[in-house]
Each structure stands twice: as C-alpha cells, then as structure tokens.
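Residues determine shape. We examine one folded chain.
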Amino acid sequence: MSVSNAIQHMTLQQQQQQLHARKHMACPCPWRYPTVRPCSPCPAPTAHGGSPSSWAVITPRHTAALATCSAASPAVLQSPGRQLQWHRCRPSGSPRTLRTCTATHARASSVSGEGAVEGGRQLVDVLAPLPLLWPVMLAAGAVSVMQALPGVAASVPTHCLALLLAPSLCMHVVAPALDVALGAQPAWRIKPPSVPATDWGARALPACFAGAHIAASLAAYQAAASAAAAASATTLGALPAVVWLLALATGASAGVGNAAAHELIHSRHPAHAAAASALLVWCCNWQYSRSHHHHHLTYCTPEDHTWARKGTGLWPYLPRYLAGGWRLAWQEEARECGRRGRAVWGPHNACLVAALSQVAVAGGVYAVWGVAGLAVHLAGAAIAQFLLAAFDYILHYGLERTQLPGGRWGPASPHSSFNSAHAVENAVLFKVLLHSDHHAVAAKPYGDLGLRASLPSSSKGSAGEASAVDIAAEPRMWPGPLPLSLATALVLVPPLWFKVADPLADAANAAHKLANQGVLAALSDAAMNHS
C-alpha cells in the first residue's frame, strides 16, 4: 500500500466515525473523538477487511509512513471488548491532524476491566480534593505568623513552625509514607476520555487550585512584610527566619500548582487556559505553557529540552531545562507572529507579554510588601521550578526512542515514561504520574487517566492477545512498595541516583524496542523507500 492510499484509508476511517456518531447521537461511542464511554453495540473496526492491521502512522514530525502492527492480531482488533484510542496532535504551523497508531502506541485497551481492579481508582478519587490542602496550609501558616506578632520576628513559636513546615513535610515525608503504608494500588483501567477536552467540570479542581494558591500567596506576602516590619528589617540579609519559612511553604504549594497548571494547559476551555496562564505568571513559570507542548512532540529524544540522557545528573540538567523552556516559548511565539504578519517585539507576542507580566507582578509585590514580600515571591517560585524540573527529569530519565533512517524518530510506546501506581502522590499531583497514558492522549482529563497492569501471557487465549497485553505493561520507577516521589531525594545525590535508575532505564528501553520492533521495521523500510 502506498503512503497516499494509507492516508486515504485514514480519511475513510474518520468519515466512518462521523457517520457512526450521527447515527448514534444518543449512544456515546468510543470510536469518535472525544470519546465518552464504551457502547456495547459498537464492535471494533476491522483494518483492511480483517487482515493483520496496517495503519498510516503520523509520527511526531508529522511525516506519513506505513507501519505494520505485529502486536495485535485480527482477534484483538475485532473483539467487542477492546478498543483503539485515537490521538490528536497540533504541531506548530500545521493543520490539526488525526493520527492512527498501532496497538503499541494507540494502545488496544480493555474496556471490560481485564486485569484492572477498580478499588485503586476509588481510593485516588476519594483523595481527589487533597491538593487544596497545600494552599490551605500556607494560608493557615501565614495567619498564625500574623497572630504571633511581634514576637515571631525574634523566635518562631512551635505552632507557627509546624504550620509553615507542614506543606513541605506533607509533600516529601507524609505523602510518601502513606503510599508506602498503602502500597502500590491495583492498576487503574485505561479508558477513553469521558468528556470533551472543552468540558469545564473535568478540570474544575485544578482551576480552583490556581485561585486558592494565589490568594494564599497574598496572605504569605502580608505575613512576611509584617514580620520584617516588626524586626525593622529593610534588607535581604536582615530578614527574620520566619520569612524564609513562609517562602518554603509558598514553594511547596506552588509545586503542587505546577501539576494543576500542567493539567489546565492541556484543556481547550478558555477559562482553564486563563487560569493556567495566571498561575504560571504568578509562579514566574509562564514559558512552561508553550515549551511543554514541544515536549509532547519530541519526548525521549535529544530535541526535547526536558529529556535527560542516561548518565546526566540533575545539576548539569537544570541550566538546559530552564533556558530551553524560554528559548522554545520565544521561538514558538515568534513563529506565530510571523505567520500572522505581526511584529515580534509587540503586544501580539504572548511570550513577551508574559515575561513583562511576571516582572510587573514582582514589582507590584515589592511595591506593596517590600523586600520581604518579594523574597517570599521569588524564593517560592524558584522552589516550585526546581520541583518541576526534578519531576520532568525523573519521568523520562534515560528513556530513548529509536532514530530511523533519514533522521526521524520512531514512535513512542507505553515504556517511554516512568509511572506510579500509588494513590496519594497521584491524587496530590492530579495523576500526572500516570504518565504513559497522559502522553498517549494528552487532552484526556486527569480523572480518566489509567495504568495497565502486566498480565501473564498464559492468561490469554491467543498468541496475538497475549503479545498485546504484554506490550501494554507499564514500566515502574520503583520496584516494590516505594512511591516514585521518593526519587526526588535520590536525584540530589547523582551517584546513588545512577545506581538505582540506570538499570530501570535499560529495562524500559529494552521493552520499548521489543514492543515497537514491527513498527520500527516498517517505518525504516518506508524511510528507505522514500530516501
């Protein structure tokens, strides 16, 4: 089959989806995007008349090539209990494209719940409001400081110390301890998006968190300014210890805010986009809203500024990560201005406007709350960005995609991200640690993210089904009961980190190559034929 025929077939699939949607408007079907819930009368579509599936694959660089899926047999594709998920991607300057992927990446996933237990999902859903505890703790600490004035400027009372340390201790000690006690939960079932990407309610909690964190930060700035005034401190070096404790609490709350902003920037609701922009500007991290989309197109390749090659420590990684985010955000906005015929150095450049807005916010904080308020604002933002960089470093550390002839990169797989099956840390971070599913369908609301469990091949009837399930197994950052968030302590000691993480990265890369071997062979042949 030629590339043009493959693209024509892909277009026919879209037409069939649209026709089916018109016929079954009252019955949401998993074969249209955005999907809602499985519809039992809708069998999975056969590929090319029931033959082993050949699909048109649009790579992250959006170049059409043929790929034969060796991971799924016709029995898998035609089974009413399985579905293929569809992905959308919108690269810089190109039209929105619907890409069909093989079962290794589009993920033939069970809607009947095979190998998945809903108990784990129920626990993480019960804990869903947990992120709001961080701005509440920050606000409580700020209020306790103001009530303890003026004595707090000289020595911090025990209750103030406990409240101000609570956000950091809950993130790095209490939450991991609870996850260790509860253990890794049974794998959450992957399912199609339950609502459109434009739905407000699916991401209402992250949007509310943005407002709560900004309000709590204002209380922290006021408390810091009051403590500095009580100590007659007008310079940075003379600030009392309570100001730096307020900065630490603000940074911990903003660290959870990074996860909230991450969820919001994947929404297509304008209110979510506004909340994400406001939160990121407040935390001096607006560039993340642009550079993160580039990460989704290039992750696990040298083109991704957030990727760390195996053997790269966190400290050499940080300058590339921080500078790369602003560089990519500026390049994206400059291209957008060029496409629209607008001046780069003008109000239509969102990157320029955001950078000036961050300076204006910092200036406003200094004007109202002085050097103490500014210290809390900037130190809190720095702590939050460090936490974000550490998690981005961990989630794809050492994981690689295969480079094809001609320089293009092969497709990703579920093994291209590290994941966590612990309920507390996933609840606190809006399930961002179910990372493979997030990368597979970036617009999917966090409530629908899942993680497939590895099942023995002998538990399946046919060889085709067994291979599809084995390929679906997710790599884990931590063997045994330890949560992934504990890796943030290990990365501070590179030799220890390399000893633990390098073998895990090697195992994940080997599984990735095995899962994609049929796809990579077809893509390589297609690249050679077109070279």
